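Posting this for the archive.
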Amino acid sequence: MSHMTPQAILGSSQRIVLKIGTETIIKNGSVHTEWLNSFAEGIAALKQRGKEVIVVTSGAIGLGRGKLDIDPTVATKDLPMPVRQQAAMVGQTSLMLAFSQALERQDLLVGQVLLTADVTEHFEQVANLRNACLSSLDKSLSPRVIPVVNENDTIATSEIAYGDNDRLGAIVANLLDADTFVLFSDVDGLYNDNPKRNPAARFIPHVEHLGIVWQYANDDLDGISRGGMMSKLRAIEHATLQRRSYVSGKPPFKQGATSIIAKGKDSIGCLQALMSSDGEETTRCTVFIAPLPVPTLPCF
């Protein structure tokens, strides 16, 4: 079976959700400015092609950790909730400032959206999220605004927190009826073993049935990130399944978003490479496709 390239997938997509992980956007405890500027250039290029772009980002807690001099040897998942909340409160301002500066270089504006995990339980919140993120479709409003979504870690509790923004990204992709969901990671896709520990791990470029790849999800969460490969597969399962409408309650007739895991860390031209039109696979990534019909399965 022939597979669409990442370039073809993005080219045929109208609405794209881009999810950035903590390990991608942070370098040595601070914002990876060079990467973020390049990422903003990629967003501008997508906008010039008439695409609708929504960004879901992690990084607030990671940036706050650096500013508060929190012991870097302690994994974020092991920090007490009050410490994480304070780190998020401090780091979120730095995160949005960095996005604002990077996007303004491209004559774009950042639109901050903070969510809590129970957003899907409230009709009005879902409607407001759609209105806010899709406002660029309204010709009377500015198309320069790029929604940048993050979990509101400052008020989240262990009972209601998303836990990682891979899941948040998938939920946003479904709520906004995205065509494509791209997860930027510190690896370039799925392997049959953890490539950080096993140099001989085999790369898997395309996945059409998630059931056979769960065994390959070996997480390494000793650092500042809260989402590993298992988290990404769960998010992709949620994003690629037939989606139900949270607003209207209609049955799940529409197929979910095609998902892509691509390397972000230290890969400055990653998004541009994914958009390359020269027919070359300039960036290696894993494409996840869920062809119809897809059973509706519990994801989380």
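The mean pLDDT is 78. The radius of gyration is 18 Å.
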